[in-house]
């Protein structure tokens, strides 16, 4: 009897998280993962702020990109980004917990599209991100 889709997503995420030094260094947590979905978050610290004393856009992008990565890698297939875009709608403020929720829009062959919403603890949308993925050779774990 094989693993369920949920178990495959969890095991894929565990394998990726073990090697994801960038997300951990940023102070990020992987809060949830499922087939085609993932949630990441971090609290904006002083070291995340820019010259306007708000969260640097690169960190918000990284938060969204990590959620995207865990969502598109949730099928025990190695997937990488083809291209990503982000629209910043509100600033992330010092001390706020930002959460990125990724959801799969579609997968076709080796390509996928994922939307990620970054919001603050009050549910206000900080940014919207769209990522395009491409499956490459390899697996996260042996099934």
UniProtKB/TrEMBL annotation:
GO MF annotations in UniProt: hydrolase activity
Organism superkingdom: Bacteria
Location of the Thioesterase domain: 54-126
Enzyme Commission no: 3.1.2.-
The entry's keywords: Hydrolase
Gene3D superfamilies: Hotdog Thioesterase
Record NCBIfam families: PaaD, unchar_dom_1
PANTHER family given in the database record: ACYL-COENZYME A THIOESTERASE PAAI
Protein name: Hydroxyphenylacetyl-CoA thioesterase PaaI
Taxonomic source organism: Neoaquamicrobium sediminum
Classification lineage: Bacteria, Pseudomonadati, Pseudomonadota, Alphaproteobacteria, Hyphomicrobiales
């Amino acid at each position: 009897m094989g693993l369920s889709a949920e178990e495959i997503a969890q095991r894929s995420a565990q394998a990726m998280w073990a090697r994801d030094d960038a997300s951990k260094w940023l102070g990020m947590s992987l809060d949830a993962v499922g087939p085609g979905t993932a949630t990441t978050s971090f609290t904006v610290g002083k070291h995340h702020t820019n010259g306007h004393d708000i969260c640097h856009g690169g960190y918000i992008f990284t938060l969204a990109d990590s959620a995207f990565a865990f969502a598109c890698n949730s099928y025990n297939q190695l997937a990488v980004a083809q291209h990503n875009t982000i629209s910043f709608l509100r600033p992330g403020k010092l001390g706020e917990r930002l959460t990125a929720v990724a959801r799969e829009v579609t997968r076709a062959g080796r390509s996928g599209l994922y939307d990620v919403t970054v919001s603050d603890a009050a549910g206000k949308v900080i940014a919207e991100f769209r990522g395009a993925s491409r499956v490459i050779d390899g697996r996260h774990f042996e099934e």
